[in-house]
Write a structure and sequence with these properties.
Layout: H1 3-22, E1 31-35, H2 40-55, E2 60-64, H3 81-92, E3 96-99, H4 101-106, E4 118-120, H5 123-130, E5 136-139
Parallel strand pairs: 1-2, 1-5, 2-3, 3-4
Helix pairs in contact: 2-3
Length: 140
């Protein structure tokens, strides 16, 4: 067997094994949404996407990073009222919304600036959500 055929078979088998592993995704696998944008449409899409899947039984974590810090602080209440309402709704339903502490500080805010329900993250809290068995991740 030539080296080219061996490599082709490895690629084929690897591709098939990755495909077949995805068929074992659980009906209630956790969803981790990394939201870094404060662009209203993108932010709303990300939160609504998470909200939909949360309502269908997937534990939900939304991690606010970079510009999305503005969605989770009181100073954003005017510009991001719709997104903050969505955040309040999912938190009230049991979803977890975590604020990146480094991003919060770099944007000039403190924990006291967080809207109700948003938790200040850290390596343990964020890691526990991100690395929970079966977790699927998506970024906006």
């Amino acid at each position: 067997m030539t080296l080219q055929r061996i490599v082709s078979k490895i690629i084929l088998l690897t591709g098939l094994s990755v495909f077949s592993l995805s068929t074992f995704a659980g009906a209630n696998d956790p969803l981790f949404v990394n939201l870094s944008s404060d662009e209203p449409m993108r932010a709303s899409m990300a939160i609504q996407f998470g909200k939909h899947h949360f309502a269908n039984g997937h534990p939900l974590t939304i991690f606010l990073t970079d510009k999305a810090v503005n969605l989770g602080v009181k100073a954003g209440s005017g510009q991001f009222a719709e997104q903050q309402q969505l955040i309040s709704e999912i938190v009230a339903s049991g979803a977890l919304v975590i604020m990146c502490p480094i991003c919060l500080k770099q944007r000039g805010f403190t924990e006291g600036d967080l809207i109700t329900g948003v938790k200040l993250g850290g390596p343990k809290m964020t890691g526990d959500a991100l690395f929970r068995d079966g977790t699927k991740t998506i970024s906006w």
